[in-house]
Structure formats: C-alpha cells, structure tokens
Amino acid sequence: AEELIVLDNGCICCTIRGDLQKTLQDLAAKQGSGKVKLDGILIELTGAADPAPVVQTFFMDQAVRQAFYVDNVIALVDAKHCLEKLDESKGNPDEKGTACAQIAFASTVLLNKVDLVDEERSVECERRLKEVNRSVEIIRCEQARVPLNKLFDVKAFDLTRVLEEQYMDEDEFTSFYTPKMDRSI
Questions:
Q1: CB of 60 closer than 8 Å to CB of 21
Q2: How far apart are CA 46 and CA 26, in angstroms?
Q3: Ordered per-residue pLDDT tens for the chain, 185 residues
Q4: Alpha carbons 137 and 106: distance in angstroms, whole number
C-alpha cells in the first residue's frame, strides 16, 4: 500500500463511523482531483464486528457512493468452531448475533481450517452457513490461503440481494439498522 490510513479510535462498526465517512470523503475528493489513484480500499474488521454499518457508510454519502463501490464482503469462518458460534447466535441475538450478522452480509465466506475437521463437519458448516445466507459463495481454505483473484475485483457484493434475504429495504438499512455486538468477548 502506498498509503495506509488507520482509524484507531475504537470500533468502526458502531462508534466512529463518522471518522470512516470523513476518510472516505477525503479519499473521494483526492481521487476526483487526481491527487491520488486508488486501486481499491480494503477495510479489515475484527471477528467481533458487524460489517453492515461499514457497508452502510458507502451508501449514505453521495460523494462516497459515487466514488466507490463495495466489491466484496468477506467473512472468515473457523470450520472447527463454526457450528458452536452459529448456535450461540440463536441464544440471545442481541448479545451474540455478530457471527450471523457477518455471514448474512457476506458475499464470500472463507471456511478456514478445513484441514482440522472431517468432510462431514465441513459439509454441515456449509449447510448451516447457507441457512443464514443462501447466496453466499463459500470457499474452503487452510490458513486463510485463497487466490486473491477470488477475493478482489470480483463484484460479488449486491446490497439488494443482501437486503432481500434479510427482509429489509434500502431506506430501512440506511436509516434504522442497529449493529449486532458480540458482548461475550
């Protein structure tokens, strides 16, 4: 990366979305004036973050919406613990709904550590992931190794599809969505 911007004031999924929006606006202005040429923007969230508010940021501001698009939302799922985390989300979704929120908004799931589980477990993980998001692409991997051409510049994310699957319209998403937080960590 020629330039790395770090937003380290806390969780960008809920507390500093304004900082993210301002950063994206600044990048859009720099790109528009020719001061910078971007190949893309990569935003990495923690395993406890709901990606929906970050995605929402790209749709709320006209300048950001015109300058950028969300290419792919990738969730990394540990095959060894997948079923337990999905089961956790059933208990109290207000406290532990992050795993399902990540999968629901993902266009790609990396089912990682498949070398540590048997085929039956991998198949069951895929089945359960599809229960949460029937159109997600699932890529099995070990040590999170995946060819980059399967992750970047793939135009995999489709907000309309995600919202239809979650029974939400775009106005509801941009105005009323409440982030899921895993408060168990």
A1: yes
A2: 24
A3: 456 666 665 555 554 467 888 989 999 999 999 999 988 898 888 777 788 888 888 888 899 999 999 999 999 999 999 999 888 767 655 555 678 888 988 999 999 999 999 999 999 999 999 998 999 999 999 999 999 999 999 999 998 888 887 666 666 655 555 555 444 54
A4: 9
In angstroms, the CA 91 to CA 86 distance is 10
**CB count, 10 Å around CB of 180?**
27
DSSP structure class, residue 114: G
The Cα 104–Cα 63 span in angstroms is 27
What residues contact 47, with CB distance under 8 A and at least 6 apart?
76, 98
What is the value of pTM for the model shown? Answer: 0.81
CB neighbours of residue 134 within 10 Å: 9
Kindly give, in sequence order, each residue whose CB lies less than 8 Å from that of residue 15, ignoring residues fewer than 6 positions away: 9
Instruction: Output the CA angle 70-137-96, nearest 5 degrees.
Output: 80
- DSSP-H helix ranges across 33-107: 52-60, 62-67, 82-91, 93-96, 98-105
SS3 of residue 148 by DSSP = helix
Q: What are phi and psi of 58, to 5 degrees?
A: -75, -15
